[in-house]
Amino acid sequence: MNGSLKSGEQFRRGFVLLMTTAYAVAFLAMLGGFSQALLLAAVFSGLVYPLYLRLKKKLGDRDTLAALLTIYPGAACHRCASDQPAWCFT
Questions:
Q1: Can you give the pLDDT of all 90 residues of the chain as single tens digits?
Q2: How far apart are CA 22 and CA 32, in angstroms?
Q3: CA atoms of 33 and 54, how far apart (whole Å)
Q4: What residues contact residue 55 under an 8 Å CB cut-off, 6+ apart?
Q5: pTM of this prediction?
Q6: CA dist., res. 90 & res. 85, Å (int)
């Protein structure tokens, strides 16, 4: 009887390992489509961070206003590149 319990436990562990591996592979496959967007977001955020710091200092440590003023021109450029009005965020 002990042999069958060990066999059942071994089967459960193997099944859990197989399912975990399958879920990990599926998750990485889904992330593959977002990898370029994530990389570009990281690069652009690094590029505009000095501008954000400068605006924050000039605005008297107003974080939200500095962030909005940093993001808006980038969003406007994106809208222009995609043939939509720059002022329209719909």
A1: 455 568 888 999 999 999 999 999 999 888 887 888 888 889 989 999 999 999 999 999 999 999 988 888 766 665 555 555 555 555
A2: 16
A3: 34
A4: 65, 66, 69, 70
A5: 0.53
A6: 10
